């Protein structure tokens, strides 16, 4: 059976060797000299060899045996490895190091998270962050496959996701998006039936209408565009109109108009999604707590 080497005993050995005496090592360790002698004796018993030459006088300097000289760099290596692991775990527990992975729907990824992440990592130079943005289905798949620590998305039919914990944070209203010179652009609100008179482009968020009286719009759409950049380009070119949640609407656009859908009034809830049977890493939990705190303000 291999000996169980205690880090404290290894430190005592290194200090005695480097300081050339048990008394000096005892002062450094804030222990009594007999306690250090006992610690070294126990270490020697575990190793099966003496580490220090026998001394004839108390004033003589402590010298290493050949075995002790061979063991000294090994002991230092063990101590250094222990300290590196301990420091890494301490930093990880304090969310100051490690690798954080999250995924989010593009609307929150572009409109909300940049400011939050900038504040969160301000004093965490050793924390690595991998950030993915995709639609809700893709975000959920990454959470399920444990490719990310947690996701930020909308849950279609929350009752079908008993294996996940969903914490809603943001809520936005669904509206119609069209060019500012479109016939519907001057309205304060639109009824879903008005949209049937125009070329409709559906997208990944159009499913939000599926459980409402506006469901017929899904079959009325002539085009489907999944990529938000392509969708906005087609809208700006006057290709048609679409429905989008408020957070997904490009507010910097000078050519498009958002008009709330008043009949039916549809809202989307976006929040944090994690697996119910998996604990978050300390950095991930810290970010979740930080997002919740920031959302309150």
Automatic annotation (TrEMBL):
GO terms for cellular component: cytosol. Residues 5-62 form the HTH lysR-type domain. The keyword Transcription applies. One of its GO terms (molecular function) is DNA binding. InterPro entries: HTH-type_LysR_regulators, LysR_HTH_N, LysR_subst-bd, WH-like_DNA-bd_sf, WH_DNA-bd_sf. Keywords: DNA-binding, Transcription, Transcription regulation. It holds the Pfam family LysR_substrate. It comes from the Bacteria. Transmembrane segments: none annotated. Belongs to the LysR transcriptional regulatory family. This is DNA-binding transcriptional regulator, LysR family.
């Amino acid at each position: 059976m291999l000996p169980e080497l205690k880090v404290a005993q290894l430190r005592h050995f290194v200090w005695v060797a480097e300081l050339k005496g048990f008394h000096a090592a005892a002062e450094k360790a804030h222990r009594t000299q007999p306690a250090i002698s006992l610690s070294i004796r126990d270490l020697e018993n575990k190793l099966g060899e003496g580490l220090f030459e026998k001394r004839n006088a108390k004033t003589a300097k402590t010298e290493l045996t050949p075995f002790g000289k061979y063991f000294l760099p090994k002991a230092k290596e063990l101590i250094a490895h222990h300290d590196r692991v301990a420091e890494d775990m301490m930093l990880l527990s304090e969310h100051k190091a490690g690798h954080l992975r999250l995924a989010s729907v593009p609307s929150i990824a572009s409109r909300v998270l940049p400011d939050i992440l900038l504040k969160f990592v301000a004093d965490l130079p050793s924390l690595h962050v991998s950030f993915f943005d995709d639609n809700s289905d893709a975000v959920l798949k990454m959470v399920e496959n444990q490719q990310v620590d947690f996701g930020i998305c909308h849950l279609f039919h929350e009752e079908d996701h008993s294996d996940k914990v969903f914490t809603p944070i943001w809520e936005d209203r669904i509206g119609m998006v069209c060019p500012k010179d479109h016939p519907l652009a001057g309205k304060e609100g639109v009824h879903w039936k008005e949209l049937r008179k125009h070329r409709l482009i559906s997208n990944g968020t159009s499913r939000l209408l599926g459980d409402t009286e506006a469901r017929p719009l899904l079959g009325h759409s002539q085009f489907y565009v999944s990529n938000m950049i392509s969708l906005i380009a087609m809208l700006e070119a006057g290709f048609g109109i679409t429905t989008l949640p408020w957070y997904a609407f490009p507010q910097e656009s000078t050519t498009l108009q958002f008009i709330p859908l008043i009949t039916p009034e549809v809202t989307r809830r976006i929040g944090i999604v994690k697996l119910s049977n998996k604990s978050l890493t300390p950095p991930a939990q810290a970010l979740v707590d930080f997002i919740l705190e920031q959302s309150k303000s």
